[in-house]
Amino acid sequence: MEIDVKKQDENSMVFIIRDAEVPFVNAIRRIAMMKVPKLAIEDVYITKNDSAMFDEVLAHRLGLTPLVSDIEAIDGLMTEEECKASGLHDESQDGYCKNCGVAFTLVESGPKRVYSRDLSCSDSKIKPVYDTIPLLDLEENQDVELEAIAKLGIGKEHAKWMPTTVCVYKQYPEITFNENEDIPYAAADACPKGVLVANKEEEKIEITDVENCSLCKSCVRKAKELGSRYIKIGYRENDFIFNIETDGSMPPKEVLLRACDVLNSKTDEFIDFSKGGSE
User: Fold this and answer.
1) Which terminus of the chain has a lower count of CB atoms within 10 Å, N or C?
2) The domain spanning residue 141 has which CATH number?
3) 3-state secondary structure 215-228
């Protein structure tokens, strides 16, 4: 198997996977979405809220606020299940377990708009990914006081724990031309992605960016309307274009690496189970 990164930035990554199979690629996609742990606010204790916003709506906004969850930030934190199973779970101090949670506080007075940057965390490494997420508006003589506990979780439990906003793949497109057919130049204009360009001077249709092809076959249908089977759209069965975007809580490369770790762990569990069953 070969992997070729086409483009990458802080929150997105596009890469080509060659010589792989659909079940493997789809397993990585599903695990990246549903099984990679990240931090999100789970419990909200509101002691004062004079604003027009209901407590439940405010808690919901806090829960969906992306929090920094890279490996360095969450180092030493466990999920609540792991914490209880290890016997280290202790909520006797400060009302939450520091082995599986971090506390945020919000104390503000109006008039002002309260943003995500106004949240204060007990751990300096953890904070909202974006500073300018509006939480609520406070008018004159209105106050808000609350404590919120963030915990590790996975997307399978709730969307707020999904590190990805986009996690998709498609099989690598393949466009071929039948030189024995008449060239339907108008079919190139039917492509919604501009992948095909009609070149009447050289009497051919050119491919500008095959990887941008969505396999919609609009060009094929247009060619057939014109009585031609010049264009054929297909794909390479074992090559894929993978696109991943995150909410900023962790880099896309880290999401993929952690997804691979989860897949390895599940594979080891299956192997151990199989060995135990055969004895």
Assistant:
1) C
2) 2.170.120.12
3) CCCHHHHHHHHCCC
